[in-house]
Amino acid sequence: MLLCKQKSMKFRSVLSLVALCMISLSAKSMSPVDSLAMRVTEGTSAGRIIFNEIPSAGPEFFEISADSGRVVIDGNSKVALATGLNWYLKYVAGIHISWNNLTQPLPDKLPLPKETIRKKASVADRYYLNYCTFSYSMPFWDEERWMKEIDWMALHGINMPLMMTGIETVWRNLLKKLGYDDEEIGRFISGPAFLAWWQMNNLEGWGGPLPDQWYDRQSALQHKIVARMRSLGIEPVYPGYAGMVPHDINSKLGYKVADPGKWCGFVRPAFLSPDTEEFSYLADLYYQELDSLYGKAKYYSMDPFHEGGNTSGVDLPLAGRRIAEAMKRTNPESSWVIQSWGGNPMLAMIDTVKAGDMKVLDLYSDKDAKWRRKGIYADHEWIYCMLLNFGGNVGLHGRMDMFVDGFYDAQEADSLHRLTGVGLTPEGIENNPVMYELAMELPWRSERFDTREWLRSYLTARYGREVTPEVMAAWDALRNTVYNAPIEMEGQGTVESLFCARPSWNPRSASTWGSSELFYSPDSTAKAAALMLQAAPDYVGNANYAFDLADIRRQANADEGNRLIRLMSDLHDRGITDSLTIVSDRFLNLILEQDSTLARQPEMCVDTWLDDAACLAGDDDNIRKLYRRNAAQLITVWGDSVASNLRGLHDYSHREWSGLLRELYYQRWKAFFDSELRGAPKPDYYLMETEWVRRREQNQ
Length: 700
Known about the structure:
Elements: H1 2-11, H2 17-27, H3 32-40, E1 49-53, E2 61-67, E3 70-75, H4 78-91, E4 117-120, E5 125-128, H5 133-136, H6 143-155, E6 160-161, H7 167-177, H8 182-188, H9 195-199, H10 212-231, E7 237-239, E8 244-245, H11 249-253, E9 257-258, E10 262-263, E11 266-267, E12 270-272, H12 277-294, E13 299-301, H13 316-330, E14 335-340, H14 347-350, E15 358-362, E16 381-386, H15 400-413, E17 419-424, H16 433-441, H17 451-463, H18 469-479, H19 522-535, H20 543-574, H21 577-598, H22 606-615, H23 621-634, H24 641-646, H25 660-678, H26 685-697
Parallel strand pairs: 1-3, 5-6, 5-17, 7-13, 13-14, 14-15, 15-16, 16-17
Antiparallel strand pairs: 2-3, 2-4, 8-12, 9-12, 10-11
């Protein structure tokens, strides 16, 4: 635990105080893109990289050249210039800005491009984020972390990210105007780690109530986030009004509502009937509050009836018109952004919305590409998206070839020019950087390309030098397995580590909707880990290499753990107890080995997650406990006993992290083996999980 905390402090202090002061003073007289370059290069770009914004019609472009020993980047938008900077850093300077390493200095001798590099965007929209990301990855981010993420967005060409920070303050203000008191509002708005599902109309109040401190802090933070985004030409996507109201609004105010039922055992907010005057009144009131706090937006995200909401009695065509009309009243130039997920969007609802007023996120193009179904999005524009991650789970995963080919297939099939963008829509981030890099280069690559050759250039950038044969062989093994998962692979997201599963002799997954079935031999990831370890002396001090080495070793250990579980299942069925005991001990030792391996990387420690939550509370012990409890619940039981045990949410957001492996996952498996092999009492896993949450809430 102490090791994680010490390394976490080092991780957060990337720039020296002197460098920070210099960057801050210099930034006052710099353009936004110059300031961005100074931040990500730790103050080493001044006078060495020159940016020229050249306004022009047509697709965005950037051009990289050299002049008098300096790098010159031209472009026709700030985001294009930032993308050009990232292209230069990767493919000329050998510097990869990644979540595990968000700033790096330029070398003393500035690398110059050997020839002019020019790239043009084939699509105008580059979308980012899923509602779930704000809970599974971002709930306890401070201003510093957010500012670094915005820099990362700009570097990767993102120009329309979802931005729901501080939206709970809009709702608090709105509900007070409707006559709700603080206690009633606290029963409606969820706790900090569960705001995503409250915002998606899935639940009310769970994990709350929020303290006043939270509303004030998040509102102030959103102002800074939006200001930084817009300075870089990034347009935030705000949550719009989609008909959500507290489930008790009928009894309190007499509003006519539809009951969308329950979600995983939680009572959903009600849906305000679109055929009433109250719908327009409440929608206008929502946008007035939103505008007064954060200003108008170009894009608004609305997803009514998310994940199975009951639509019985709802006039869907009218609902679509009313939602769109309310949005247009607040900004006639705005567009409705909607997720294509599950049964949404329903054609009856979106067919009444004017073409050009909606953008559909094909949320899971990397596996369930709905765009291939003719007419599914009516006449609306749509964005090709990579979901990749579920629940913030840890694991190497992707579909490199399929995702690349799918994008160019979509362009070739797009005779009506409705494909307008590429998007990243993961439930959790800060994982699999190779896949996000690949996805966000697609808009800037005009032709199909070989992913192996691309991978070699990526690794050269990531590690800052030509890759050794051992490293290339390691990544070839990964590219041929975990990073080219078949479409027919069971479950969603990565192959799940059974270290993180509630124990049984034949577990199929760690989470209810996932899968731990290996579609490749565990020898493949073991080979990759061995090769990376063999080459490690050549990359001493390289932060990106250290992160990847730990992550690949983690995957190899997890795959071996999954193999041992299958072996134990067979031994149990055959009644070979002596061998079963030996293998179970090996499995337990492997969990502890995994814990120790990850302890050296702060991003892979549960203390980093919990301490981030606690840091936002300041000196208030009760608020600190609330935030830590939210953080601990989310990655274990998720909800109450009904949601966790009967509706399957336990371990949905499991994390293969140091600390959690040793303190909970190891203890669950040990209790299981003691019960099954040594006659100890049968364990109550939900009790063990809630006890872990209680201890970590108390910082024990």
